[in-house]
Amino acid sequence: MGDYKKMWQDLNMDIEKHDILCEALPEQFGDIYLTQENRPEAMNYFNYVVAEIHGARIMELEKYKKEGGKVVGTFCVFVPDEVILATKAIGVGLCSGSQFWIEDGEKILPRNICPLVKAFTGAKIGLTCPYFQSCDMIVGETTCDAKKKAWEIMDEYIPVHVMELPQMKREKNIKQWEDEIRIFINRMEELTGNKVTIESLKKGIDICNGKRKALKRMYDLRKNTPSPISGLDALLVSQVAFSDDPERFIEKTEELCDELEERVKELKPNGKKRIMVTGTPMALPNWKLHSIVEGLNAEIVVEETCTGTRYFENEVSTEGDTIDELVRNMAERYMDINCACFTPNEGRVEDIIKYVDEYNVDGVIYYNLSFCHTYAIEYEKIAKALKEEDIPLLKIETDYSEEDTGQIKTRVEAFLEMI
Ligand code: BJ8
């Protein structure tokens, strides 16, 4: 990474502590990613993004802020990026996927909660994440109890806007989400001083749909046997989607897909088992499960997660001549996301069964971050449905530490032999 010390100091970061993170990441990335064989050329851009993860993109954000722009951090795929773009702000995903931040998170949060929440809290209070430090405001949501209560703590460090996500999917809940989107529009207008217009909102929708299309195209290419891209690389592309400039991301992902389309013409069978991962999100740099699975005789071909299909499935319609109509379109699209925080959540079962077929999957791994209760409880329902369809399933409950890596490897190995 280049010399960004001055910028990090200006961002009021804990430089010494942050240096430890900066030293560890390239090695971890090198071991997991750069040792893969025959990677697509177009992955070089995504390698560069990781190499510059706390540098080049942060510089862009800081430059934008100096010109009067605003930066807003988000933690959930329900928060409508369209609105952020329509007010000319930049949105960055702040979910954190490293064990590095856990220690600081545990200083103020109970140990027995989800690592994702402990990590993002630790990243903020330890002053070790430049994305957090660049944000003018963060946007929380009422999904799980851990996140919901973490916003109260976060509010002591940075302005927080919380969107109240309904937990059922009846018409009145969709209307409630419409209302929340309207409130969010007002808050973003206040923050940025920019009014949302039909034109700016339609433009925001188009950009977000463009991202969804590019990701969907990459996922569709993974339906080939074998997949022209590893699960690790596809996961990296999805993770980068949350913080990169959206228009550049679309261009680079489309370029990658062009290359993958060429590769598909020359694919030869590799005998690897095709695996679906379903469950909780994997925020950067959480590559733990993918690196274990793909270190064995298997390839991950689809993730039914929020760093997977839940992020890009379904587009927002641009039909309509009023802001209210566009807000309705957004509410409908977002309320179609099947997160386990909803009750009931039948759509998720249907999605998983559908993807098994579409991606020609041999077995499913249910990935559950420790202490995420909604996903842990929903496992029973998914297990029953998959059993009825005769689809093999393995549940892995884990956190960000490396302690259980050997044990997970043994269990995955046994699973692959069985399917
Ligand atoms: S739409 S999955 S991004 S809430 S933080 S719920 S892992 S205990 S992230 Fe999520 Fe939105 Fe749902 Fe997707 Fe569990 Fe952890 Fe809570 Fe989590």
Give a structural overview.
The protein has 419 residues and is α/β, with parallel strands linked by helices. The chain is built from 19 helices and eight strands. The strands form two sheets. A four-stranded parallel β-sheet has the order 2-1-3-4, with helices on both faces. Strands 6-5-7-8 form a four-stranded parallel β-sheet, sandwiched between helices. It is globular, with a radius of gyration of 21 Å. The termini are far apart. The model has no long low-confidence stretch (mean pLDDT 97). The structure holds Double cubane cluster. Double cubane cluster (BJ8) binds next to helix 7, helix 9 and helix 18. Belongs to the FldB/FldC dehydratase alpha/beta subunit family.
In short, what is this structure?
The chain is α/β, with parallel strands linked by helices. It is built from 19 helices and eight strands. The chain has one domain.
Itemize the secondary structure elements and their pairings.
Blueprint: H1 5-10, H2 15-34, H3 43-51, H4 56-66, E1 71-74, H5 81-86, E2 90-93, H6 102-108, H7 115-125, H8 130-134, E3 137-141, H9 145-154, E4 160-163, H10 171-192, H11 198-221, H12 231-241, H13 246-264, E5 273-279, H14 288-294, E6 298-304, H15 309-312, H16 323-334, H17 346-358, E7 363-369, H18 373-388, E8 393-398, H19 405-418
Parallel strand pairs: 1-2, 1-3, 3-4, 5-6, 5-7, 7-8
Helix pairs in contact: 3-12, 6-7, 10-16, 11-12, 11-13, 14-19, 17-18
